[in-house]
Amino acid sequence: MAIAMLDEIREIANNRSTRNIHISHADCEKLDLAALLAADLILLRANHNRSKPNHIRLSGTFSKVSDEVNIMIKASGTPHHLKLAEARLKPEIAALVHRAELQRGNSKRIERSPNRNAACQNLTDYFDKCLGSLGYTLIKEGKNHLGKLLTEVIENAEAHGGGQWFTIGHWQRNQRSGTDTRSGDCHIAIINYGTTIYESLKSIDVSPELQEKLRALSAAHQGRNLFGERWDQEVLWTLYALQERVSRYVGLPGSAPDRGVGTIEIIEFFRKLGNGRMCIVSGKAYILFDDKYGLGEIEKDGETLKIIAFNEDNDLEEAPDSNYVFRLPSHFPGTIVSIDLTLDEAYLGALLKK
User: Fold this and answer.
1) From CA 230, how far away is CA 187, in angstroms rounded?
2) Domain residues of the chain, as ranges?
3) Average pLDDT, stretch 13-25?
4) 301: which of 122, 180, 204, 245 is 20 to 30 A away, CA to CA?
5) For position 163, what pLDDT does the model report?
6) How many angstroms separate the CA atoms of 290 and 340, rounded?
7) Integer angstrom CA distances of residue 118 from 71, 155, 310
8) Taking the alpha carbons of 234, 235, 240, 243 in that order, is the dihedral positive or negative?
9) What pLDDT does 96 receive?
10) What is the per-residue pLDDT for 160?
């Protein structure tokens, strides 16, 4: 539904006869940062492609039911990006908010590495500030580890996506009455426009070793009539690509041995620190991570690998839970990684005592 709405916004914004766009969040109770960013990018790009006199006049209605939604829109949405007066927060609210400013890069340009490094540093510093709001901090090793994981996620977007990528973060500490325990919601969004994960796996430079594994996996599902309206080869391959040690370059000369660890490890990293969810959208594939299905270990070629198959047996040759992995009715032209994490002072304190 959200992807279809983005398509509608894009169609309207790209129509040269459009002069005014009004976005209403009046009934919005919860807002995903990645969805907010995707809509903002469409509107900002449409205006960028027009001469100033022909810019679209943007307006909106704030939520009538959620202060949190309004704070996110003001602090990390279009009002902030355009430096509008509506972006101003009351001092007592601004003190509860941290953001990782919008960063971008282009895989087709030689300066992609500095852009990527800046974005990863920005997100790492932001996450450390989130923890700092609760009285904690990442040690040096933790910062280096998180930076490495974020680097691989963005590096994959550069290497496989072939288009522009964007990163952003938004944090708001909660105000609870009757308790001294502090908590807050950490949001991170990474969006890449270009080739989807599935399209990347179908490209001619995929290693023969991975091609063989993907074909065998598809044959196993087809042979048992597991594919259907909500579960098909695109979603299967997208899920497989997220597993540890899976890279389209695996087996090729010069392939790094630690390729294909970023996504699976970043899930582990955040799951250990708080409660929340992470979702990946690529093309028509949707994959949701929360606490119901965890990572399992398998022995393969003399090493232990972590996998997540979203079924009771944690078996990639079985169909996943359709509430967590399924085919979308609309296509997103790239890949979205959305992380929503609740950090709690008491939980973090208990974690340190283990």
Assistant:
1) 28
2) 1-95, 98-354
3) 95
4) 204
5) 81
6) 10
7) 26, 12, 34
8) positive
9) 94
10) 63
pLDDT digits (tens, 9 = 90+) for 152-197: 888 877 766 668 899 999 999 987 655 567 899 999 999 999 899 9
**Number of C-beta neighbours around residue 79 at 10 A:** 19
Least confident of 15-24, 62-71, 262-271, 301-310: 262-271
pLDDT tens-place string over residues 224-262: 999 999 999 999 999 999 888 776 544 433 444 444 455
At how many degrees (to 10) do helices 140-156 and 112-132 cross? 140
Length of the chain: 354
**HSE (side-chain half, CA atoms, 13 Å) at 73:** 22
Token digits for 108? 């087709």
What's the pLDDT at 252?
A: 37
Torsion, Cα of 254, 257, 240, 223 (10° steps): 70
Nearest Cα to Cα of residue 35 among 333, 286, 323, 336: 336
State the SS3 of the chain. CHHHHHHHHHHHHHCCCCCEEEEECCCCCCCCHHHHHHHHHHHHHHHHCCCHHHCCEEEEECCCCCHHHHHHHHHHCHHHHCCCHHHCCCHHHHCCEEEEEEEEEECCCCCHHHHHHHHHHHHHHHHHHHHHCCCCCCCHHHHHHHHHHHHHHHHHHHHHHCCEEEEEEEEEECCCCCCCCCEEEEEEEEEEECCCHHHHHCCCCCCHHHHHHHHHHHHHHHHCCCCCCCCCHHHHHHHHHCCCCCCCCCCCCCCCCCCCCHHHHHHHHHHHHCEEEEEEEEEEEEEEECCCCCCEEEEECCEEEEECCCCCCCCCCCCCCCCCEEEEEEEEEEEEEEEEEEEEHHHHHHHHHC
pLDDT of residue 152: 84
| 265 backbone dihedrals φ, ψ, rounded to 5° | -80, -30
pTM, to two decimals: 0.92
**Per-residue tokens: 1:** 């539904």
Query: In whole angstroms, what is the distance from residue 14 CA to residue 7 CA?
Result: 11
Distances from the Cα of 149 to the Cα of 144, 180, 190, 270, 302, angstroms: 9, 33, 13, 11, 24
